[in-house]
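thread: overnight batch results

M.L. [08:02]
morning all. the overnight job finished for the chain we discussed friday. pasting input first so we're all looking at the same thing
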Amino acid sequence: MKKYYLFLFAVVVITCSVSAFSADAGITVTKNIVFGKAGSYVLYGDMYVPEGSGPFPGILFIHGGGFITGDKLRSSQVPFYHLVAQEGYTVFSINYRLIQDGGTFPDCIKDVKTGLAWMIAHRDVYKIDSDRIGVIGMSAGAYLAAMIAFTPNDARFQPDDKALKDSDTSVDAAVLFYPPMNFNTFNSSIATIFKLQLKKKTGISSHKKFAEYLKFYSPINYVKKEPPIFLSFSEPDGIVENSQQYEFMDRMKEAGTVFERVAVSGEGIGHGFVISKPDSPQSIEVRKRMFAFLEKYVKSED
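M.L. [08:03]
and the structure it wrote out:
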């Protein structure tokens, strides 16, 4: 049964051609950097540094996979890191504890905030301008990126590492691709499996207490005026209901959050389209608009 779950979640990001992306020989890549430990679990990240003297704006990248699968080195994602680095950003792509690794909430949130704090602490080594920091996440990674964006310096989610727990964990902007934002209203077939696994790991048997748990860890309940948000998703999505995105946009409007919405549709365009269909007109347009957003809110020094 466990293998079945992993297989089902693996379809969230589809193995694909990535011919739209090309690696740049000028980018310096350092793989499997240890940026933290959680008990016996080691947290690894990969750094992609552009050619030049810098300092460059920094981007923390968080992979997806339904909180049960996924990895920073998934083949369909790696060319995307190069693409972002080619645009003049230092990219730190990280792993975090998955549910089977004990990574229930808030553990995985603390892991990604540890990655952010570590990246900034090592800004001089990797030519990062700590005054220009953004985060990009896809699917479950977009959920985590949203939690970073809307809970800056919140003691409940700060790194456990004593050397990093008082770090500034705010970002200048966040790019969210097809994120689940409200676990209580997340009801797709994938969501059902995710919740079953989460309930099993947490040991929460009470329906009321589990609903409270889901509410506490849903980004929809932390939306603030800042930072600016780039939100992109497909209609239909197939994995994360579009109602999640529209509820999120309504909440951002109420909070006065500056955000840009890019919804796409078309044959073969669904959840994961940004990396599963990189040659599609939809993905090309989304990347173009994403970089314009990052240029305005992260790269610009104004």
